Structure formats: C-alpha cells, structure tokens
Amino acid sequence: MIGAHVLVGYVPDQQADEALALARAIVALTGGRLTVAAVHPPGRVGAAGEAADTLRRAAAVLDGEPADFVVQESRGVGRGLSVLAGKAGADLIVIGSAGGGARGQIAVGAVADHLLHASSEAVLLTPSGHRPPERLERITVGYVHRPQCDEAVERAAIAADRLGVPLRLLTLALDDADRDALRDDLALAVPLAVEAGGLDPDAVQTELAPGRDVAAALAAAEWLDGELLVCASSEDAAVHRVFLGETALKVLRAAPCPVAVLPRGPG
Fold it and tell me: How far is residue 93's CA from residue 30's CA, in Å, rounded to a whole number?
C-alpha cells in the first residue's frame, strides 16, 4: 500500500507546513517512514545553508516526531524531489498548493507541474488552507472506464481495506454524456474493488456527478471532511510514470480535498 515511505518537499511557507501536516497524518495511518526534503539550486553561495535552516524549521514543526531530513541539490525542485524519491525508496511525494491559489483548492505551480508529468512515484497535493482531519473517512477514485482507472480502483480498494474506510467510485457526467452507460461502467467496476481489496460490496459506493463542466460536477458531488481523492494517470503516461491529462488536471484544480495521482501501472 502506498504510504510506506512518504517524502514531503519543504520550503518555509504556510503551504509547505500544510503539506508536512498531511504527510505526518499519512504516516500515522500507515505506520510508514517520513522524509522531509529541502531542494536548493547548484552553484549559489549559501544555498545549502539556507536549505539546512529550512529543515530545522520543519523539525520544529514536527516537534520531535521521527523523520529523516535531507538536503538535495537540483536545478529544479520537482526534479530534485523525484530523484530523491527514487534514491530513498519513497513511494509517495507530498507537496503543498502553490502560493496565491484559492483557499480550499489546489493551485498547480512549477513543482507540481513537473511531478504531475514526470514522477515515478505517486504524487499527493494539498489544498490551500487544508488541515488534516482526525481520521480518514473515505477514499474516492475518479473513475472512467479504462485500464489505468481499473488499476487505481484495485490499489485504492486495498488501501481502503487496510485502513478500514469506505471506497467510493465517482464518475463525472459532463454535458450530454450517456448517463446510463456511465452507470453501467461504475457497476462493472465494483467487483474489481471487491475482489482486489476483499471489501464487502456494501463498502463500495458509486456516485454519478452531473455538471456542465468539471468544477460544476465536483461541486454537485458529496464530500466528507476526511476525504481523499485518487486519480489515475493518463493513457499517454509511460509505464510507472505520472502523467496527468487535461480533464484530470481540471479535477485536481477543482477538488475540495487532497488529491493523489498514481503512476501508470504495467497493465
């Protein structure tokens, strides 16, 4: 299950504090390992020292909770986090929303843009102003009928079973989409979740959210305080890489909860 080793990219700002809080909550759930990284550019005098100061701030925020602290040199923060995740064996990279975004939503900056189109590990993004709830209440998978989403359902079902939370399969019905066909696709995905996670069929919820566009459809759906949204990578992704398509990127920007994007599997 993803979350055995969580890497969080940290800079001294509120959005990074929010990402760190979410990463800490994840390892508390999974019993995993936490690594906090500060990435600095090469060739700039004092950059390594500033990065070390940044990690001291992160340690103060964690207030004695166990974590590894790593300084990474790279020409880009996203690239540095991806390289470090590979070296450290992390299976999840957590980052905050870019500054200046709307509260409660995810703004995609340069770091997220790199990771969402190149990471070998799952990427989890934190909405601006997000505070982790006391418990995870549900895992939702953004579902459309294609192999990458079927793989995401199976992985999310395993996580839902181990964490003891319900699983929801959510499909957006945009404009004049054939809603009966979409409901049929959702119904066919339920046995995948049941078989992969050993879930009771009653623990697998399905929902069709209609709307004129992605934002309207997401607003029409029900969201719990302790929700996690899981999205699959695009069919254009290379195997074991994250690549977020246009519609999924709109979902990420409009989602009211943290969003995890999974790398494409071998299927």
Answer: 15
